[in-house]
Design a protein that fits this description.
3-stranded antiparallel beta sheet
Length: about 80
Amino acid sequence: MFKATITVTLRPSILDPQGKASQHALSELGFDAVSQVRIGKHIEMEISAETADEAKSVAEQACQQLLANSVMEDYHVVVNELVGK
């Protein structure tokens, strides 16, 4: 059993209004050192597979088919073995 951790973010060329609004709000709260805020998605899934490579392939297929918009978003998959499952 493996756990896939997936981070989905908008591509750098895509405007991120939610990130821009958060950046502005943080600035208003005094976080002047913060810049270029981008908002994304964090997804975790448990995958039953024989190997980490097989689990990563399953997670990447899920991203390509459902979890990420390939036109606007990039994704990064990290797979770790679950011990004791």
